[in-house]
Amino acid sequence: MHVHVNAATSVDGKLSSRRREQIKISGDNDFARVDEIRANSDAVLVGVGTVLADDPQLALDASKHVAAREARGESPHPARVVADSRARTPVDARILNDVAETYVLVSEAAPADRIDTLEAAGATVVVAGDERVSFPEAFESLEVEGVERLMVEGGGEVIFSLFSDELVDELTLYVGSMVIGGRDAPTLADGEGFTEQFPRLSLRDVERVDDGVLLTYDC
Ligand SMILES: NC(=O)C1=CN([C@@H]2O[C@H](COP(=O)(O)OP(=O)(O)OC[C@H]3O[C@@H](n4cnc5c(N)ncnc54)[C@H](O)[C@@H]3O)[C@@H](O)[C@H]2O)C=CC1
Ligand SMILES: Nc1nc(O)c(N)c(N[C@@H]2O[C@H](COP(=O)(O)O)[C@@H](O)[C@H]2O)n1
């Protein structure tokens, strides 16, 4: 499986403010680029923290991408995946609507009634890991379902875990020309943080996009 992480941060590395509300960091050209990565992915993953904060739908915006996928014999939109150890995704979350298939990755600690509720809402639930979702195990299950190209849009807890598990193949990071600040504001990679053996990335490309910079790394 090819795992492509994409995110937008402020110049001080924040994904959002301490209020954890969605902040428009990208400009129109960058959002169009994000839509294209989604269009070329089999599935798009976020953590439940992002679902609770942003309520994203993770569907394609541009009809040309939908048409191109259908011409290739693919589903109109990529599948959506939520990493949600305790099955907290609300049933009215947009990510569970019928625009595309949705997988919810949970751990053994997820309450059975919550799993039943999510399945009744149309999600396919994948159990992997004891207390937290085990991404290596969950990704094996997604591969069996045909997910070979996985895009990850955040947030910081999930992205840290994926770097920690050495599962990231590619990172595109849009750095918008703004300062958000705040010691409690989410950053690109939160979690416990590394104290040694810091992941080293290989910078492939630098490009000016909108009023910011797009950095592309091989990981
Ligand atoms: N600017 C950008 O590009 C983006 C910004 N965001 C922002 O990020 C914030 C949300 O990020 P976070 O709070 O970090 O939440 P998150 O989206 O990373 O979700 C974290 C949750 O995922 C679940 N999870 C399951 N297995 C896990 C594992 N193995 N490792 C880590 N988490 C696991 C846990 O329940 C955990 O609480 C929001 O403020 C949102 O607006 C989110 C996506 C993109
Ligand atoms: N690439 C990017 N740039 C920004 O400025 C952002 N605020 C985000 N946020 C993430 O984009 C997703 C939105 O999903 P919908 O298209 O609204 O369904 C979601 O993952 C946000 O957290 N991304």
UniProtKB/TrEMBL annotation:
Statement: the UniProt record of this protein carries the keyword Oxidoreductase: yes
A Pfam family matched in the record: RibD_C
Q: Which PANTHER family does this chain map to?
A: 2,5-DIAMINO-6-RIBOSYLAMINO-4(3H)-PYRIMIDINONE 5'-PHOSPHATE REDUCTASE, DIHYDROFOLATE REDUCTASE FAMILY PROTEIN (AFU_ORTHOLOGUE AFUA_8G06820)
Catalysed reactions, as listed in the record: 2,5-diamino-6-(1-D-ribitylamino)pyrimidin-4(3H)-one 5'-phosphate + NAD(+) = 2,5-diamino-6-(1-D-ribosylamino)pyrimidin-4(3H)-one 5'-phosphate + NADH + H(+); 2,5-diamino-6-(1-D-ribitylamino)pyrimidin-4(3H)-one 5'-phosphate + NADP(+) = 2,5-diamino-6-(1-D-ribosylamino)pyrimidin-4(3H)-one 5'-phosphate + NADPH + H(+)
Which residue intervals define the domain Bacterial bifunctional deaminase-reductase C-terminal in the entry? Answer: 2-215
From the UniProt record, give one GO term of the biological process aspect. Answer: riboflavin biosynthetic process
Record's superkingdom?
Archaea
User: What is the enzyme's main class?
Assistant: oxidoreductase
Gene3D superfamilies, alphabetically?
Dihydrofolate Reductase, subunit A
Q: Which GO terms describe its molecular function?
A: oxidoreductase activity
Keyword Nuclease (UniProt): no
Its Enzyme Commission number? Answer: 1.1.1.302
Query: Pathway it acts in?
Result: Cofactor biosynthesis; riboflavin biosynthesis
User: What name goes with this protein?
Assistant: 2,5-diamino-6-(ribosylamino)-4(3H)-pyrimidinone 5'-phosphate reductase
The similarity annotation says: Belongs to the HTP reductase family.
Quaternary data: Homodimer.
List keywords of the entry alphabetically: NADP, Oxidoreductase, Riboflavin biosynthesis
